[in-house]
Amino acid sequence: MRDEHDADSADINSGDFDSLASQWADVTGLSDGGTDDMASEDRHDASADITASARRLPHSRPKPLLIAFLSVFAVLALIAGVTIARGVADFRAQAHAEALRSCQSAQSKYATTVTTYTATMKAARELGKTPSDDVANTKLLDMLNDLAGTNDSSVIGLDLNALNESQCSGSAGIDDLNTLAGSFNDAITPMFKRTGEVQYAADNVKASIEDQKSVNVRTRLSYLVSTAQTVLDVSAGKVDESLRTALSGAIDAATALQKTNNLTAESTKGVMADLQSATDAVRDAMPLDCRLSKCVALTFDDGPDKTNTPKVLDALNKAGVPATFFVQGQNITGSNVDLLKRTAAEGHEIGSMSWSHTQLHALSAGDLKTSLDKTSDAIENVTGSRPTLLRAPDGAWSDTVLNQAKADGMSLVLWNIDSQDWKSRDANATVKQVVDTTLSGSIVDLHDTYGSTARAIPQIVKRLQDQGYHFVTVSKLLEGGARPGEIYYSAGDSDAYAGGVLADR
Fold first, then answer.
1. Is 447 an active-site residue?
2. Residue range 409-435, pLDDT digits in tens
3. CA quadruple 65, 68, 72, 73: dihedral positive or negative?
4. Catalytic entry in 152, 305, 421, 447
5. Which CATH number among 1.10.10, 1.25.10, 3.40.50, 1.20.5 corresponds to the domain 212-285?
6. How far, in Å, CA of 249 to CA of 251, rounded?
7. Any catalytic annotation for residue 240?
8. pLDDT digits over 113-154, tens only?
9. Which fold has domain 295-497?
């Protein structure tokens, strides 16, 4: 007789065993709709074995356990997938943040470098405009301009304007951020190097400017002392002695300062101001002296000319300035005699240009003497004075000419300013030529045989007077320094002007 256990066991029919076998096959992977017939037969055999074994096992319910197992497995798989995905996302976020930080750091360093670089280059280019006369060593100035003048992009190798506009944006990708950071870093090193080179060159130029300032100060002081001494010398008996005493003291103080080292504009300022003031006081108290003031002598050749000389005299008379006329002896005839008298009567100086417009050096000694003597006689007969100044036609002369001039008591006066009125025959061109080239002590060569020259006189006089020039005769310009038998092109050729024309105002 069977007990309940046996009864329950007996109740497990073949269908239950088939179902359990099927579940086991599902767990073990033995059940697969895609397997071939052999796999199916294997399942059938395995199912039969399981069925036989199941008849010997206690009754159990595996289905809930399997479900739990599968659920845990699925949850774990999901957690693993989420963890991996989150890890990948976090890694990319960290990489992007690092790229952004690197880019921003590079941009910050670039911004600091380019600011210094730009300021240095701007200052260097401005310094490079310094006049060469203000630099002791002009090669240093050239070197600075070479360095500072080179195009930025060609030196750096990058477009700085484009980099200046670039920004490290959080919306940019990692590769773009890394590329931009690389560009910033690539620009920093060459900019830093060039900044150092340009700054070094600029410092050298600044030092050279200071050196030149010292030279300029010493030169200026020396010039003032020389000018003051000349003013003191020529003013004896012409001004109040108290003015000369003050000037002498100022000269002594400046001379003592000259012997010191490291002269600067500041250290010499007071002494030079006192010296200039004392010099001006004496000079202003004296009558006009062309050794001390800006003077120019207008001279006219080839007259008298009955047509144009009167026009020239009218222009000079209206302007109120004297001039020196070098006349040809052959022209002192007829109505020109009265014209020459008028010229002398109006305060103009009369010099000789020999008898005719023949180059004197081409004449024999006898013919030269005859030409000069005849002209001097003609001038003396009209004006009552024998000429002491001779101008050689075309400026051509020789030792024979100088010797004959000396024998006749005449100095040979040429010119250092050619008006070229004979060439242009144009009043405006004549004005420009004279005004643009005249210096203190100049002798200007003009001709009273052209109407254009007469028309140019008013503007010549006005524009040079506006520059502080005084118009004088040649004899006044040379202040008695002209000696017979010597040649003069300007006031500076005279021994009385060994120190140069001492006019600075």
1. yes
2. 999 999 999 999 999 999 999 999 999
3. positive
4. 447
5. 1.20.5
6. 5
7. no
8. 888 988 998 899 999 999 988 888 888 989 888 888 766 666
9. TIM Barrel (3.20.20)
